[in-house]
Amino acid sequence: MVYVFWMGWMGEVPRKVILNESVRNLYFHVPMWFGMILMLLGAAVYSLRYLLFQHNTDDAWASALTQMGILFGILGLITGMVWAQFTWGAWWSGDPKQNASAIGLLMYLAYTVLRSSFEDKRRQARISATYNILAFFCLIPLLFILPRLTDSLHPGNGGNPGFSAYDLDGRMRWVFYPAVIAWTLMGWWASNLWARYNLLKNRIQS
Predict the structure, then answer these.
(1) 107 found inside a domain
(2) What's the domain count of the chain?
(3) Which residues, in sequence order, are CB contacts of 38 under 8 Å at separation 6+?
(4) How does pLDDT run across 115-165, given as a tens digit for each residue?
């Protein structure tokens, strides 16, 4: 409710060439991806902590952050497809950024399959932590390096500017940056609840 009021208080969203009213999606699509990256980074850090200290709390946090990062990634991909339909004329155009994002999500979906493949909790946590760290180091080149090496319609790639006066009006920054913080904090809050739930469930089972 506060978020909607804040967007209304900022006044009319500036119309951009090609983007037009679809530029409002900037408040949802991009913050979700920012939140996803930060949560997956946190998951990699907790995975490293587990490998070093073998604490179940670190494994629970790594798992919860990864699953929430996957959720944000799926939502970001869907909102990106909607945006692409209105600006590029197709839900999926095979753009390098789209393809790289899909590969990255499939890579993390494989993480969830991997975790469910082991009955031994310690082995599950150890192998999942190793995979999680490797997956994050593969995700960064997929999203931020490889798309820049070729032509891309996506802002920020292939010479197409991103986060500039071309596609981010100064008035929009007053909503965009709080949206990034809000989506990220919401993801971390949900991850905290999920991690605590899993820890409690494991204690009851043991």
Answers:
(1) yes
(2) 1
(3) 184, 187
(4) 989 888 899 999 999 999 999 999 999 888 877 777 766 665 544 445 554
